[in-house]
Structure formats: structure tokens, C-alpha cells
Write a structure and sequence with these properties.
The protein is of the alpha/beta class. 42% of the residues are buried. Helices cover 35% and strands 11% of the residues. It has helices spanning 8-23, 42-51, 64-69, 83-90, 93-105, 122-125, 133-146, 180-192, 203-208, 216-219, 242-256, 284-298, 372-383, 405-420, 471-491, and strands at residues 28-32, 56-59, 76-81, 113-118, 154-156, 158-160, 197-200, 230-231, 238-239, 264-269, 314-316, 361-366, 433-436, 450-451.
């Protein structure tokens, strides 16, 4: 065995790296824009990031105040080359080198810069600059190599879903043929430099522009009734959310150009919390639902149906309302925090994710007073597609009485949740379910409980996922066992 021939400290280092890389799950970061009236000082912004334990941020530029304030925080930072800068950098290697020296090398290693985002949706926002986009990426990468920073700092370029001709069904999605040459060069660069594809994916816009084809529950990560299931007719993959479908459409578009080893990071997504009279879906309720469900979805540490082993690292757009932006009201209403640091609406980020309780046992039950039609739909889904064992609530069985929708839904919801939570199961059921630490069992009817260290419930996530995605749920126990064996060998 290889480890037997290594020095103990080296073997331990390899094991630790293996453990960390396989246990740490996908992250949710935030975008920080600066078109903000009364933008807080950079030190206050970073204090808020630390208080909410946000570990990843994306800056749309290379703001010196923010980069200095982020020093020695370990927060991972993507910095942006603005669209106005792309042309000059793409035409001049020396300009690229100067940009890297000024905005990257000057701040590392103190500031944990991990990537450069070259422009923002260049192909669709400033198509006349497209011919120099890949040269700009190459020049920046070569400047990083010269500064010996290329292993730490990746280079990529965020693109919108507009570069994909037709996103549904995901299995047949392809890039718009007019961009094929440039996108092929981008993908070739990403593969050669071991980088990743930056995707800006907004279910809000896809839903609004779909003219009612898709239900809003699909855009908000909410459970879909049997008659509303979204299925790719070619692969028969069930899509529990529009977010997953957009990511899968991008993966399939990449594969259509014969690239299959480039991961996707969602550099922008979110939901506006306010809008004009012609923007009825831009509400606080929808924004809160979308972003909290997004966090739960990403924390599953699984990918979309076609790529279940590729977690979807994601950045929420955005930290503060950019109230100086032109356009409709919704354009200025994406912030999750007010500039005084308070939440615009309740959101579970960082250490606040999940639900706190005094007990280590958590149960998923139906909300008192929930609509009976929704409860019935929830029971049908849990006992059917959700694969819950509902035999105990059948007539003559121990949990049949009391014979109410509330009681039967609580049992079905809880059985589904306990079976499936480790691989993405949720406690939501169209808003009719809730978590509790109070045991709903009776003398004759026993509910299975879930035990969580420290009395903190894990983040619930929406929808069951396919059996092919279950590797993430067994990863930690396998690694713990492996570590025990390896350390035993080392000691021996």
C-alpha cells in the first residue's frame, strides 16, 4: 500500500486533503455590486459577511477598499474585469500583466483571490468585443503564470442563458450557433487551464418570459403536484426546479461541443423582492422562498439530474440593492441585506442555515390548519413518487386514527423526510409542512425521529433525487472509516 511507504506526516497531509475535499459541500456565496447609494464602508461589508459566515464573494470589479478589507479573512473572492476593461486587455498582453499586478498580485496572499471573471455576459451585452474575449482570458492567464499565481487563481467569463438557443428540454440544449466559434474557444481555454464555466442563471426571468408554460412552483423550488411534473421526454429525468434544468441545459450545451470535463459554477442567480405594477411576481415572499430554497438545494451537495456528482456552487445576486441601476423597479430590488446590515427578508445563510431547537430529535409534520386539498396532494406525492412507507396509515393499521388529513399527512411527511433527507429530502410540501422537536408519536403510532448533533436541524432541501445521486450521502461515513483504517496502519 502506498501510504505504508510514506512518512507519517505526509500520509496524514494526503488523508486530510482527501477528507476535506470530499466532505466540504457546495457553497452559496454572494455578489457585491457598488451601484448603491450610501454603500457601507468596506470594513462594515466584510464584518457583515463574517457575521453571517459567508465564505465566498464575487466583486464586479477590483475594488481596492474591498480587497484590502477582505485580507486575512480567508473569504474566497472572485474579482471582475469590467466590460469597459475587456477590450484594452484583449488587445494588449502588457495591459493584462499590469491589471494582474495591480489587482491580484498586490493583494495576495493576504486576500484569498481565487478567480478572475472576465467581463459580464460579454457575448450578449457587448457582442462587438467578443473577438477579443478569449485573447483577454489568455493574456490574463499568462500574466498569472508569470506571477506564479495560476494554480491559485482561475480565469473564466460569466455568460447568460441567452447564449443557449433553447434550454428545454435540457437534453437537446445547444449554444446559439452564431457564438459556436467563440464558445468553443472559451471551453477549450477552460479545459486547458482546469477552470470552470461561469453561468448566470435566473429562473425569475425564465419564468416571467415563459408566458405561463411553467408553474411558478417550478421556478421557486417548490414541490410539484403529479399533474405538473416537469420531465425531459428524451432522458425521462424529472426536474424538481427550473434552476436544475437551466444548469443541465448548460451542461448539455457544453457536451454538444464535445467537452465533458468542465464544471459549472452559477455566478449569478436570485429573485427580485419588489417590482412595478407590471412585475407581479417580484415580491418579498417569492424572493424569500426562492433564495432560502436555493440555499437548501445547493447544500444538498448534488448536481442536476444529468450530473448528480457535480455540486452546484452558486452566488446569489446580490448583497445590497443597486438602487442606482436604470430600468424597471425590479432591477433595483435584488439585495438580500439593507445597507444598515439588516435582512430585507428572512434568509438562512452561513451559520443561520437550518432550524434551531433544544432537542436533538427533529420531526417533519403537517402544519396545523393547512389546506386539506394541499395536504391530500402532499400525502399522494410522499406515498407515491416520494417513496414513503405509508402502510401504517392505512385502515386497520396503528397510525390510521385519528383519521384526519392532518394526522395522515404528518406521518407520511415525516416518513419521507427521515428516509430521504440525507439525499435531498425536504420538509416543505408546498408550504404545508414544518419541523418540530415535539415527538408526535402516540402509544400505538410511532414516528421515526432524526438525531442531529448539537440540536441543530440540517438544512432541508427540495425533492427526492435519483438513486444515482446518493454517493454524497454515504461519502462521510466511508471517509471516516477510511481514515480510521489509514491511521491504524500509520500507528502500526
Amino acid at each position: 500500500m502506498l501510504l505504508m511507504t510514506l512518512k507519517p506526516w505526509l500520509a496524514i497531509s494526503i488523508l486530510f486533503s482527501f477528507f476535506i475535499s470530499n466532505v466540504i459541500g457546495a457553497f452559496v456565496g454572494v455578489n457585491i455590486g457598488t451601484d448603491v447609494t450610501n454603500l457601507p464602508p468596506a470594513s462594515d461589508v466584510v464584518a457583515l459577511l463574517k457575521a453571517r459566515q459567508i465564505t465566498h464573494v464575487r466583486l464586479f470589479n477590483a475594488d481596492a477598499h474591498m480587497l484590502n478589507a477582505l485580507a486575512n479573512t480567508s473569504i474566497e473572492v472572485i474579482i471582475g474585469v469590467t466590460n469597459e476593461e475587456v477590450l484594452g486587455i484583449g488587445e494588449s498582453p502588457s495591459a493584462a500583466a499590469a491589471w494582474v499586478n495591480k489587482n491580484v498580485a498586490a493583494y495576495t496572499p493576504g486576500t484569498n483571490i481565487t478567480a478572475i471573471a472576465v467581463g459580464s455576459e460579454v457575448l450578449t451585452a457587448i457582442p462587438n468585443v467578443a473577438p477579443v474575449l478569449v485573447p483577454a482570458m489568455n493574456y490574463l492567464h499568462k500574466a498569472l503564470v508569470a506571477s506564479r499565481l495560476n494554480s491559485q487563481v482561475k480565469v473564466s467569463t460569466p455568460q447568460s442563458m441567452d447564449v443557449i438557443a433553447k434550454a428545454f428540454p435540457p437534453s437537446t440544449a445547444t449554444f446559439n450557433s452564431s457564438w459556436n466559434s467563440t464558445i468553443f474557444q472559451i471551453l477549450q481555454f477552460l479545459r486547458n487551464t482546469n477552470s470552470y464555466y461561469m453561468l448566470n442563471a435566473y429562473p425569475y426571468y425564465e419564468y416571467v418570459h415563459s408566458d405561463g408554460i411553467f408553474p411558478i412552483e417550478y421556478a421557486l423550488f417548490q414541490p410539484l403536484s403529479a399533474v405538473k411534473q416537469i420531465v425531459d421526454p428524451n432522458t425521462l429525468f424529472h426536474y424538481e426546479s427550473m434552476f436544475d434544468a437551466l444548469v443541465d441545459a448548460t451542461y448539455n450545451s457544453i457536451e454538444a461541443l464535445n467537452f465533458s470535463d468542465i464544471p459549472i459554477v452559477v455566478t449569478e442567480t436570485g429573485w427580485p423582492w419588489d417590482g412595478g405594477s407590471n412585475e407581479p411576481d417580484a415580491t418579498k415572499e417569492n424572493a424569500e422562498t426562492f433564495n432560502n430554497n436555493l440555499i437548501r438545494r445547493v447544500s444538498n451537495d448534488t448536481g442536476p439530474p444529468s450530473q448528480p456528482k457535480n455540486p452546484i456552487n452558486t452566488f446569489i445576486y446580490e448583497m445590497f440593492n443597486e438602487d442606482k441601476r436604470p430600468g424597471p423597479i425590479s432591477e433595483r430590488s435584488w439585495g438580500i441585506f439593507s445597507t444598515n446590515g439588516s435582512d430585507v427578508y428572512s434568509i438562512s445563510l452561513g451559520s443561520s442555515a437550518g432550524i434551531s431547537g433544544n432537542s436533538s430529535t427533529a420531526f417533519c409534520i403537517a402544519k396545523p390548519g393547512a389546506d386539506e386539498n394541499k395536504l391530500q396532494d402532499g400525502i399522494n406525492w410522499a406515498c407515491g413518487q416520494g417513496r414513503a412507507n405509508c402502510s401504517a396509515i392505512q385502515s386497520g393499521q396503528p397510525c390510521y386514527f385519528p383519521n384526519t388529513w392532518q394526522n395522515h399527512a404528518s406521518y407520511a411527511y415525516n416518513d419521507y423526510y427521515q428516509r430521504m433527507r440525507s439525499v435531498g429530502g425536504t420538509c416543505d410540501f408546498d408550504g404545508t409542512a414544518t419541523m418540530t422537536t415535539q415527538d408526535p408519536s402516540s402509544k400505538t403510532c410511532k414516528f421515526t425521529g432524526s438525531s442531529n448533533p448539537g440540536g441543530v436541524f440540517p438544512p432541508a432541501a427540495f425533492g427526492p433525487i435519483s438513486a444515482t445521486s446518493q454517493s454524497s450521502s454515504i461519502r462521510a461515513p466511508v471517509i471516516v472509516y477510511t481514515l480510521a483504517v489509514f491511521f491504524a496502519l500509520l500507528i502500526a
